[in-house]
């Protein structure tokens, strides 16, 4: 069994055998979506998010092992390896513990202590540090080490060198550092002040001009804000620790009762703290706080991204996309049910009454010409004016509905090489209108084309570790794409690359094969795609749908390896494939229970979890787990920030959920903030306990700051 299996099993409440199975599957190249969906018996039905955390923790533990080995080899090369060191290195649970052990053996640049050692003062330092009760006065001991040729001209220089060596020994002591680290984490205070003459330029950081917070209570968003303010030169940030309290801890560790040279060592210890330990520990503590804040921000980003990607689609309808704007007009794109562009235009509804009427006439003509059923309006600049125009338009054209959609990242996509490749004939602005229309039809398929960092559901994304952020958000995209599944005949390369087992090259090859050979008529045809081998097919097949296949199982999420089991299940329960295709399996779950799920699973040669998944897929072939589209919201009487008044109650859409609150789009371009204390009437640790991105919520206006463009909202104590 893998040495980490037991620890991971305990942490994630799994059976050790299941943890071992997951490790072996990961090591064998299986993806998280594949493991979560098609290997449930092997891991006890653990969900994909837990499995992803499991994978990350496994990588972390193995990284710690690798560092443990590097340190052992480095110390062994110095011929200083002992059984005691071996036990310490092996038992270290964190990277900081490991580095503390290694600290005395780490190659150092030239220090005051190393200079003193070169002068031959280390024996004196060790003698004094030993604090033997019968030790002569330090001045007496130092006389023997005066050596002008070595650069030690008198007793004072000898003692100074010895003090430097003792200070470094104390600073490098793993037990000392561990004790002081614990003290600082418990008692230190994080402080910030405005930099000289930066009050006006750094006004955005005003709340941090005179800020203090116990380190133990510091919030992630505060840490990230302080770091950015410091980096931009507006803030001075420090960690303050009670010096005397720290020195008491230090003296307790290094001073010997009634020892000789006690006062000398005491002074060296104070020097060690002030010159070496405190600055080092402050940097370390700031780094720890930053790492924790980064992880929190990344987790929050992922938490918000998932519901955004899983917004319900409006498929199968001709859709008009409106990208609102002032000076450059409102860009218009009409797309068919498959996302193909049918028509484009630019109208100018904000210029004048005449231009507004011309815009309505143009849009009405496009709607009638192409049979538009839905209109998607981007929520950016001039969105509310465009919505008001649309409402007037729909008074003249019946049977058409509209929806405000987030246009976050649309401009990034429209200027990307991918957009240029898709729509070389359109300028950047018209591409954005196409993207907005497609977001209503299928948000997931469109949003996967955009770097998740540009979608606008995170905080401080430009300050976060890029690799870690990309990995996490990429995992969310992968989970969402595979949860929904993709149509092998219509999916873009951008969507296909996120399917389990596939990559960008294989995705492009699938599209190229489709264009050259026509539509896929069976799943197994995918094996003919260049570079899509048996392993990739095993990982991907269950997530690829082929609605045109004669084999009904190809239209479902049933994995090809379970086709025989699915057929046997139908036979046992008195059904045929024709019944699946016709949707006549409403009684299948009941018939299975009457027959006995465990008995049926045994006869079908699969586990009960797999069998139940097969039942779900057969009952609803090609099912989409995404919910139905919420109704259009937002009011037409709210057009600008100045229209908002305290006491107004509005309906809005949650756009972002962060540590300290919720940002809600209420229709004025500028999102309002519901502070965490006003999200609900009970205590919550994080707003995500109550709401998520995409939720439609009722909010009350508390305060409007037009100058700073800030809106304070509440979700508490609102009228029914």
Give a written overview of the molecule.
By secondary structure, the protein is of the alpha/beta class. Among the domains are: 5-79, Arc Repressor Mutant, subunit A, CATH 1.10.10; 319-457, YqgF/RNase H-like domain (Nucleotidyltransferase, domain 5); 641-714, Beta Barrel (OB fold (Dihydrolipoamide Acetyltransferase, E2P)), CATH 2.40.50.140. It is 48% helix and 12% strand. The strands form four sheets. A five-stranded mixed beta sheet has the order 6-5-4-7-8, sandwiched between helices. The longest helix has 48 residues, at 262-309. It is globular and about 105 Å long. The model is unreliable at 631-638 (pLDDT under 50).
Task: Describe the structure using short key phrases.
15 strands; OB fold (Dihydrolipoamide Acetyltransferase, E2P); single chain; Arc Repressor Mutant, subunit A; alpha/beta; Nucleotidyltransferase, domain 5
CATH topology (level 3) name of the domain at 319-457: Nucleotidyltransferase, domain 5
Strand order of the largest sheet: 6-5-4-7-8
For the largest beta-sheet, the strand count, sense and barrel status come to: 5 strands, mixed
Measured distance between first and last alpha carbons: 58 Å
Coarse shape: globular
Q: Which stretches are poorly predicted, pLDDT < 50 over at least 5 residues?
A: 631-638
CATH superfamily of the domain at 319-457: YqgF/RNase H-like domain
Mean pLDDT level: 91
What percent of residues adopt helix (DSSP H or I)? 40-55%
């Amino acid at each position: 069994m893998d040495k980490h299996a037991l620890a991971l099993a305990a942490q994630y409440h799994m059976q050790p055998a299941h943890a071992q199975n997951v490790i072996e599957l990961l090591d064998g190249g299986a993806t998280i979506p594949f493991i979560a969906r098609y290997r449930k018996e092997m891991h006890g039905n653990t969900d994909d998010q837990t499995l992803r955390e499991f994978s990350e923790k496994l990588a972390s533990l193995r990284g710690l092992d690798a560092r443990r080995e590097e340190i052992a080899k480095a110390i062994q090369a110095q011929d200083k390896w002992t059984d005691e060191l071996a036990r310490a290195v092996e038992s270290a649970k964190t990277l900081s513990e490991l580095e503390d052990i290694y600290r005395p053996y780490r190659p150092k640049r030239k220090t005051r202590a190393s200079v003193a050692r070169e002068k031959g003062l280390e024996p004196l330092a060790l003698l004094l540090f030993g604090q033997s009760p019968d030790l002569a006065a330090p001045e007496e001991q130092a006389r023997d080490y005066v050596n002008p040729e070595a650069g030690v001209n008198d007793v004072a220089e000898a003692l100074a060198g010895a003090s430097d060596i003792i200070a470094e020994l104390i600073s490098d002591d793993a037990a000392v550092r561990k004790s002081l680290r614990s003290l600082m984490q418990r008692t230190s205070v994080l402080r910030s002040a405005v930099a000289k003459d930066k009050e006006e330029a750094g006004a955005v950081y005003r709340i941090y001009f005179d800020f203090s917070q116990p380190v133990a209570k510091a919030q992630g968003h505060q840490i990230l804000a302080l770091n950015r303010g410091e980096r931009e030169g507006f803030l001075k940030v420090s960690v303050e620790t009670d010096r005397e309290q720290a020195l008491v801890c230090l003296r307790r560790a290094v001073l010997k009762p009634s020892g000789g040279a006690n006062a000398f060592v005491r002074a060296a210890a104070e020097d060690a703290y002030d010159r070496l330990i405190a600055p080092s520990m402050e940097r370390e503590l700031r780094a720890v706080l930053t790492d924790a804040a980064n992880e929190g921000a990344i987790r929050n980003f992922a938490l918000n991204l998932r519901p955004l990607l899983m917004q319900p689609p409006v498929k199968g309808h001709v859709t008009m996309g409106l990208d609102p704007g002032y000076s450059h007009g409102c860009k218009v794109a009409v797309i068919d049910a498959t996302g193909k562009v049918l028509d484009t235009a630019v109208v100018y509804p904000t210029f004048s009454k005449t231009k507004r009427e011309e815009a309505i006439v143009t849009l009405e003509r496009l709607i009638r010409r192409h049979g538009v059923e839905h209109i998607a309006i981007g929520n950016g600049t001039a969105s509310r004016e465009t919505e008001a125009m649309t409402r007037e338009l729909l008074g003249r054209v019946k049977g058409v509905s509209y929806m405000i959609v987030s246009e976050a990242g649309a401009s990034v996509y429209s200027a990307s090489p991918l957009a240029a490749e898709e729509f070389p004939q359109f300028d950047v602005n018209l591409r954005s209108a196409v993207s907005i229309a497609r977001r209503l039809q299928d948000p997931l398929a469109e949003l996967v084309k955009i770097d998740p960092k540009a979608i606008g559901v995170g905080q401080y994304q430009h300050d976060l570790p890029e690799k870690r952020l990309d990995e996490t958000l990429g995992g969310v995209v992968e989970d969402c794409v595979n949860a929904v599944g993709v149509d092998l005949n219509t999916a873009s390369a951008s969507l296909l690359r996120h399917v389990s087992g596939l990559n960008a090259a294989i995705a492009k090859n699938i599209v190229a094969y489709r264009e050259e050979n026509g539509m896929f008529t069976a799943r197994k045809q995918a094996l003919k795609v260049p570079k899509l081998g048996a392993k990739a097919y095993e990982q991907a097949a269950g997530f690829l749908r082929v609605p045109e296949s004669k084999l009904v199982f190809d239209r479902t999420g049933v994995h090809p390896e379970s086709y025989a089991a699915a057929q046997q299940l139908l036979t046992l329960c008195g059904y045929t494939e024709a019944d699946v295709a016709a949707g006549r399996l409403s009684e299948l779950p009941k018939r299975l229970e009457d027959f006995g799920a465990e008995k049926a699973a045994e006869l079908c040669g699969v586990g009960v979890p797999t069998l139940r998944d097969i039942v779900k897929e057969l009952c609803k072939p090609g099912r989409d787990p995404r919910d139905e589209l919420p109704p259009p919201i937002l009011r037409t009487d709210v057009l600008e920030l100045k229209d908002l008044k305290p006491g107004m109650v509005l309906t809005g859409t949650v756009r972002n959920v962060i540590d300290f609150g919720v940002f809600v789009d209420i229709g004025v371009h500028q999102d309002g903030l519901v502070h965490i204390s006003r999200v609900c009437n009970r205590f919550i640790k994080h707003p995500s306990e109550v709401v998520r991105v995409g939720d439609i919520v009722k909010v009350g206006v508390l305060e409007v700051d037009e100058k700073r463009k800030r809106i304070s909202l509440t979700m508490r104590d609102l009228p029914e």
